[in-house]
């Protein structure tokens, strides 16, 4: 579990690809109250929508953390950013990174952080002691988003449902399992980066027993059908012991992410396998709805697709961006 | 992948529980040619069967590695052993540990190893660069042992089959996925200790494409039915892309290992789920036999149990220790 100091200054470097600043945009979109501004370099053509400011301006206005809000292929730390990170530490900010490379592997950053009494947070790398899972029944209700594939909107769907629950004053907590979600929540565990023995146990710690009426909304990862990541997805499913599952899908994708010639499973297959495997640790686990990213088709086609799925499966089906998730929440709140 | 220098001197400390020296005994039983002797301290009441010798005697006789051949609860390194480890390094031996605690976290050991040009091998902790899995079809045949539970004889069964294949001059390699197996093989990857994203990919690297008639005998871990470790088992199953599976089981166990009140799955359930999940990356995957640890019952009862299972499932069923694995190998060699 990480505990991150806010507000954040979102550093987006000289990014030109909107997808490369997903981490910064997630925080700006879902936790605007935690984001004081963005710091950008000449050449940057994208934005989080937060006001632009320098490191010193942000520090003066109370910023507490400097967030490396972008990703490049490989997750490496570009040495060009080291002077900016040093500047932020000297200005009194903690530094938060979601890169594979660890800030703490740079002795000069460790030294500066120590000198100025600041923290270096490598949020992709779990800190703290993890245990193995047990699968014992625990109090409280839990929802987990699962997928036909990776990158099909599990975090977005989870956050949208959590926000709707907040608005309806239903006691609930968003439980982050990846670096973008951790930045939004200010805490969490990147489950795809824990030691394999601890996947399920980490989720049991992340979403512990709670009051009977409280909902944990747990961000899913990967897919039981993905040949690289199914182990992570299964450990997450077993550790979550979810009462309710929502299947996420991206319309029009022809092959599993980063794998050639592997078609996505059908929604029916995805529902059946997730329910089968989830019931090993929660016999009541049930898929209660479907969330689809329909951005590849027109609004009319999206509506027709969702209507057809609803008819076929007897479950509500929405595009969370186009239609919101209120109809999923309506069904969620009927789960005993 | 680890590459370990042999012969080994097996250090068993002052152990009194035969189970606590599983690592040392595995090496002595399965790779006696790699074991020059054992080093024991006053109070030790167990043995690997290797000749007793001091560190200096072993060094004189050509020992190349000093093996911490025991485990204690928690996998911690007892500071009492540091002087012996230092002694071994100064005598010119590498040091091999299967503990959770890393040798390389002890600056004094790192310094001595550097001074004497020796290696510190933490074989539970994967070294080298891992990739994510792809699930692409690859040449060569592979067998994976799977289980109803943890600690049901998957390593023993795998090694017994591999030895039988060697005796029949069938080209084959034992692929180790845990610390005891790695010590036997001299190389391998402890898959339960890799970062979760890389479970399947690590197995693809461990058991790469080979000639069409070559068998990789891959040591399984955990169980798809274990609430803590199913994610590891699924990643292993997907990465192995095994043509043949052998289900391992321990007769008379009343609950899944380290979990209260969770009965073991039936053999039928274990076969069905492993075949279902394995076929995601190898549509031809098939359970070809059953290996049971029958040590809880008499020889007569063991034979009756195995005969009943054979009748019920139509698959050969043996206790590898009591009956050997020749009958499993007979069936294995009929796999196209």
UniProtKB/TrEMBL annotation, chains A, B:
Pfam families linked: DUF1611, DUF1611_N
Residue ranges constituting the D-glutamate N-acetyltransferase-like N-terminal domain according to the UniProt record: 42-126
The protein's matches in SUPFAM superfamilies, at most eight in alphabetical order, are given as:
P-loop containing nucleoside triphosphate hydrolases
Q: What is this protein called?
A: DUF1611 domain-containing protein
Q: Which InterPro entries match?
A: DgcN-like, DgcN-like_C, DgcN-like_N, P-loop_NTPase
Q: Which PANTHER family does the annotation name?
A: DUF1611 DOMAIN-CONTAINING PROTEIN (PTHR40690:SF1), GLL3100 PROTEIN (PTHR40690)
Q: Which residues cross the membrane?
A: none
Which positions fall inside the D-glutamate N-acetyltransferase-like C-terminal domain?
Answer: 132-329
Q: Which organism is it from?
A: Pseudidiomarina sediminum
Its organism's taxonomic lineage begins at:
Bacteria, Pseudomonadati, Pseudomonadota, Gammaproteobacteria, Alteromonadales
